[in-house]
Amino acid sequence: MVNTVGCKTQRCSRSYIDRSNRNFQIHEFPEDILHKILSHLTFKEIAQTSILSSTWRQTWRSYPDLNFCRETLNLNSYIPHHTDDEREFIMRVNNILEYHHSPRLERFKVSFGLRKGHKDHLDRCIGFAVDSKSKHIVLNLTPHPECLDDAYVFPLHLFQEYNSCFIESIRLVLVVLRPPTGFYGLKNLKRIMLHRVLVWRDLNCVLSACALLEHIRLSDCLLAGFTLCQQLVHLQHFTIENCYVKSMELHATNLISFHFQQREMPVILDELLLLKEATIETMSGSDNLDYSFSTLLNAMPNLERLSLSLYMIRETKGWAVSPRDFIHLRYLKMEIHLHGQVECSSGLLRLVSLLEVAPLLEEMELHVSKMFLAYA
Questions:
Q1: Where do the F-box domain residues begin and end (predicted)?
Q2: pLDDT per residue as tens digits for the range 41-71
Q3: Could you read off the pLDDT of 272-327 as tens digits, one per residue?
Q4: 83-99 and 119-131 helices cross at what angle (nearest 10)?
Q5: Count of alpha carbons within 13 angstroms of residue 368, beta-carbon side
Q6: Backbone angles phi, psi at 219, to 5 degrees
Q7: Rounded to two decimals, what is the model's pTM?
Q8: Euclidean distance between CA atoms 187 and 145, whole angstroms
Q9: Contacts of 314 (CB under 8 A, 6+ apart)
Q10: Which distant-in-sequence residues (6+ apart) come within 8 Å of 10 by Cβ?
């Protein structure tokens, strides 16, 4: 009598072993694993993998994270003002976009030294990102242009369409923003970072519809104005550094981080009751102690940690009393750029009065450097 049960068990076991020992085919991997593999390859390498299988070919063509830069496109080292270099970059980007068909992009990034003369190509790239419902857009045109007159004008008019509602973050470097009259786009924008950007109109003309903003970072920008009249209740992080702007108005009562590195200027802030930590650096050559406390810190009653960098004049003999006490302040770091006649100490002695408005201060770190005024 044949033991059929034993035979079946043996066949099943052998079949299982055969399946478990065989190599996976590339098209059998889950899509998220394929995308993870692609993230470690240059676009040239990704394109070359299209010969592996039809599934792999479709995967790279629908890859949701497009990053166009010198490294990912496998271009040679940077050659300043080299037309062939720019032409090759544009050609490779166009070739990839022609075959790419992701229903929705996670990120679209262009990082290459282009300028106003490449407007048609750059407009097509940004239009592709908007049409592909990209969540994050990065445009970094470093090291071009050499002057803002040659800078590319970012096509904000493309962001008034329905697809722009999918954009959550924008980072722009070395471009011009010239918002059209009545611009009311980017309604779901949560994060904006501008570096070396010229904004022709008030920043409010760009962000008037951005009620969901959580993060604003501005550095080395030229701003015609900064008057954000609407209440940005979702804004938690704000940074402004070395920007040319005459005044600033910001209504964001729920800020939890505040970084200010500017010359003295008129500033309007709502009371920031949730703010626990701030960094303030005033860069004008005059005495900044009164300005820092009366204009900026007066809106921050619940600070626990403060980093403060300012100028102080030795000859100054008085200090206007701070409009409020900082009873929650525990840590204070001060960098003082001190200038004036060495024999005068009244300006520096004002720091003693500072302890009166922070009665529960536990740690104070003080750095003092001698400075010579280059301007008044």
A1: 23-71
A2: 666 676 666 666 666 666 667 788 899 998 8
A3: 999 999 999 997 778 888 889 889 999 999 999 999 998 888 766 666 556 688 99
A4: 20
A5: 12
A6: -140, 135
A7: 0.84
A8: 30
A9: 338, 339, 340, 341, 342, 344, 345, 346, 347, 348
A10: none
Distance CA 239, CA 280 (A): 10
Q: What is the mean pLDDT of residues 97-103?
A: 83
**Which residue in this structure is represented by tokens 């040319």?**
244
* Res 374: pLDDT: 44
**Both tokens assigned to 40:** 């470690």
CA dist 62 and 101 (Å) reads 5
Amino acid at 326: F
Strand partners, 131: none
Phi, psi of 130 (to 5 degrees): -65, -45
Strand order across the beta sheet in which 65-69 lies: 65-69, 107-111, 136-140, 169-173, 191-195, 215-219, 237-241, 257-262, 277-282, 305-313, 331-339, 363-370
| CB-CB neighbours of 134 under 10 Å | 28
Give dist(CA 296, CA 288) in Å, integer.
Answer: 11
Give CA–CA dist 145/43, Å, rounded: 26
Phi and psi, residue 187, nearest 5°: -65, -25
pLDDT band at 263 (very low <50, low <70, confident <90, very high): very high
Distance between CA 41 and CA 255 in Å, rounded? 39
CB 56 within 8 A of CB 34: yes
CA 323, CA 290: separation in Å to the nearest integer?
10
Residue reference for tokens 């079949």: 15
